[in-house]
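Ticket #4471: structure output looks truncated?

Reporter: J.K.
Steps to reproduce: submitted the chain below (123 residues) through the standard prediction queue, then opened the result file.
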Amino acid sequence: MTQEQVLNGLQAEKDNSLAQECVVALQQNPEGFQKGIVQTREFLAGLYATRLRINKSLKRSFFENEEISSWEEAIKQLSASSAEEVLLNSVITEEKAYLMFWDTATNQLITIFYLYRENAQDL
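Returned output as attached by the reporter:
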């Protein structure tokens, strides 16, 4: 998906406050857009569930509760999706990293979560 397609897709998610926050971030910081990768939904859901589990088990104190909640909700939504292939891309700002999962068949946003930028280095 192009940056414009991502922006349009996020703008269509009117009831998703995080998507709308990401719209503003992308408009203010277009150079923070990362095109991303395409993988199977099962692979990405498993990968990000494992990363979450590892970070929770290490009791990484630098993660805020809202970051963990956002990440957990995204994994639930991704796991429940019927998409076969998923595009994972991101928008990185000075403050946050937004990770977006898109159904490649429909270009619809499946889910989005964020981490504070300093906590998103390995994702």
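Triage note (M.O.): checked the attachment and the full token line is present. The chain has a mean pLDDT of 91.
Status: closed, working as intended.
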